[in-house]
Specification:
five-stranded antiparallel β-sheet
């Protein structure tokens, strides 16, 4: 058996260390160059989502209250017509971020948009489809929405096949928005 020399161990270690340092420095530079663009894109996505979930509103005012942020939707005359809430809940693949629009005129959910999710493609990721999110468009239920596996009635959401955890997460996020709405409207 051949004896190992210090040089045989140190040279690869130092080389690997230098490669890691160079790659890290490159990532820091790229991150600093793109962070403003990424932030603008996220703001644009929130703005577009507000318009989708509360289409009657012409302008939105951002309100920060404690840990939560919501948007007040106003018409041309500046009258409040509804609210958009960003909430999240733990899904199968991580947090699912949801924007929920609620009309203050008739206490109805006007829209639900998935802002971000890491669910399984073809299963939990189907929560982004309009056929699923349309189920939430109804009057605000007193006890919030519940998930069922068979055909849904008022205040019930039919679970996505093979993705009950994702369905529950979206429903929990929407119910969280309903709670915030109830607190604001009281």
């Amino acid at each position: 058996m051949q004896k190992m020399k210090a040089k045989d161990i140190l040279v690869p270690c130092i080389t690997l260390f230098l490669i890691c340092m160079i790659v890290t420095a490159c990532l820091v530079v790229i991150n600093s160059l793109t962070k403003d663009t990424i932030a603008k894109q996220e703001e644009q996505k929130k703005s577009d989502s507000c318009k989708l979930v509360l289409s009657q509103a012409k302008e939105f005012e951002e309100i920060k209250s404690g840990d939560s942020t919501y948007y007040v939707g106003k018409d041309e005359s500046g009258e409040v017509i509804g609210y958009s809430f960003i909430t999240s809940a733990k899904g199968y693949g991580g947090d699912i971020s949801v924007m929920t629009g609620i009309s203050s005129k008739d206490d109805k959910v006007t829209g639900v948009v998935i802002l971000s999710q890491n669910e399984t493609p073809g299963l939990g990721a189907n929560a982004e489809k309009e056929t699923f999110t349309q189920q939430y468009k109804s009057s605000v239920p007193d006890e919030g929405f519940s998930v069922v596996k068979s055909s849904a009635q008022d205040g019930q959401i039919q679970a996505l096949t093979g993705a009950t955890i994702s369905t529950n997460a979206v429903t929990d996020a929407v119910n969280s928005a309903l709670e915030q709405y109830k607190n604001i409207s009281e």
